[in-house]
Amino acid sequence: MMLAGILLLPACVWENLEDLNPHTPDCDTTSMSFSMDIKPILSNNCFSCHSNVNAPSFGGGLSLEDYADVAQHSDRIIGAINHNEGFVAMPRGGDKLDPCTILKFEAWADAGAPDN
């Protein structure tokens, strides 16, 4: 019996707790607001390519400054910021956004993408 335990021990893997449970106590995703929470995320991470001015040249024509554009493309944005297969990973050439930022965007979209 002890031999079986020793043989199975290498199968155990330590995982990064944040990867296993990205819902950290300091990540408040309640009552996400487009103007207070989502637009700053986009401004800090996306507008260099996806602003109204830059989108035609650098952002594939997708502007993310206006609520209607973001709400319409929220599924596409979530796939891109999660680096999901079948989506162009965003920010392009940059690191994946931190888990809390992604959770905030997902919470806003899951709440029906309110214009608030």
Describe the structure.
This protein is 49% helix and 0% strand. The protein has helices at 2-8, 17-20, 34-45, 47-50, 55-58, 67-72, 74-81, 99-110.
Structure described in brief:
The protein is mostly helical. The chain is built from 8 helices and no strands. It starts with a helix and ends in a 6-residue tail after the last helix.
The proportion of strand residues reads under 5%
State the major sheet: none
Cα distance, first to last residue?
Answer: 60 Å
The class by helix and strand makeup works out as mainly alpha
Indicate the topology:
Elements: H1 2-8, H2 17-20, H3 34-45, H4 47-50, H5 55-58, H6 67-72, H7 74-81, H8 99-110
Helix pairs in contact: 3-8, 7-8
Supply database-style keywords.
globular, single chain, 116 residues, disordered N terminus, 8 helices, 0% strand, mainly alpha
